[in-house]
Structure formats: structure tokens, C-alpha cells
Amino acid sequence: MVHIPDYLVDKRLSVKRKDYQSYIEHFMNDKKPYLKPCFTLQEMASMTGINVPALSAFINQAHQMNFNEFVNMYRVNYFKSLLELPEYHHWTLEAVAYKAGFNSRTTFIRSFTRCCGCTPREYFKLLRVHNKCNCCRRMLL
């Protein structure tokens, strides 16, 4: 369980610290706030009702990453899910990345490579040829 100091937790919040994980996961999956290119920690705190220090501490401790890395992880996964849909097969990888909430090509490539262990182009080629990612030895999506 992630330890968040009492002084960081808003006492009026109906979500208990132990429930942060499922609450944040549902929030990210249901609301998809990461699709907004300039989504911030302050916006997420406001939308979830978790104060900024507690939310930041939770993400850092539970996921061993900062807020931007956390949001970009969701964007990468969304990007990968879009590549599975036939209507995106004619789009460029960069266009799909922008659709997934990225606003920088460099950030997209860096985040994708960090999350998946291969570049977006390598992933796309492997997806089309083998439906398997040889660089990380696992099935794609």
C-alpha cells in the first residue's frame, strides 16, 4: 500500500487513500483526460478532488513515475489501441499520436520508447508483419 502523509490528504475528500489506485484508474479510463494535449496535474487534482501534493505523491509512489510520465503512459496505450482500428491504418504515426493527446513528436517518441522498449515505427512494422513485438518478446495489444 502506498503511504501518503496525513498532511497531504484533503480531509473533505470522499475517496480514501487506500482507494486512490482504483479511483484514479477509473478516472483515467472513463474520462480520458490525457487526450487533452496540455492536461496538467492541477487540472487532474481539480477533476478528481484530490489535492495536488497528495495526487503527485500517490503517482510518484504507486507508479514510480512523475505526472507527465504517468499521463504519457496512458497516451501511449491509447495510441496502440488506435493502431488496431482499421480507420487509423492510413493515418501517419504522428497524426495518431496527436489524436492520442501528444503535442510533441519528440515527447511521443521518447515516451513510446520508454514504455514499449521499441520505437513507434518498429512497433508498427512488427504489428503489421508479425502481430508480435520481438524487441520485448510479448504479444502486442
Spatial strand sequence of the major β-sheet: 1-2
Judged by helices, strands and strand pairing, the structural class is mainly alpha
CA distance, first residue to last residue: 28 Å
What percent of residues adopt helix (DSSP H or I)?
Answer: 55-70%
The total count of helices amounts to 7
From the alpha carbons, calculate the radius of gyration and give it in angstroms: 17 Å
Q: What is the CATH class?
A: Mainly Alpha
CATH topology tier name: Arc Repressor Mutant, subunit A
Q: Domains counted in the coordinates: how many? A: 1
Shape: elongated
Number of E strands: 2
Describe the fold and architecture.
The protein is mostly helical and 141 residues long. Helix content is 55%, strand content 3%. The protein has a single domain, classed as Arc Repressor Mutant, subunit A (Orthogonal Bundle). Strands 1-2 form a two-stranded antiparallel ribbon. Helix 4 crosses helix 6. The longest helix is centred in the middle third of the chain and has 17 residues. The N terminus and C terminus are likely disordered.
